[in-house]
Hints:
Mean pLDDT: 93
Structural class: alpha+beta
Helix content: 25-40%
Number of helices: 3
Amino acid sequence: MINSFTEITESLYPEVARIYREGIDTGKATFETNVPSWETWDASHFPFGRIAIMEKDSMCGWAALTPVSNRCVYGGVAEVSVYVGKNYWGKGIGSRLLTALIEISEENQIWTL
């Protein structure tokens, strides 16, 4: 059974990286060619809105918010990342992650995704 949301922490990052690598390998998810280190990923994302859905000890998918600019005029704007592990495609994981991320963004004064 697929559980509720979990906050992404450094200890979960190997699972994030695994799913991110799957996205890179498909050529459909990102223009990146390498999975960033935890330190790089952590520094580039907001401290809120880092969520994953787990099934037992396996991550089904994850989502996170990234600032689009450090200029104050863009303070309420974020880029959305939603990645779903290939074994969980077509099961509504992405929709669940995005819906939760929208709620989290609104709670944190992000008005444009």
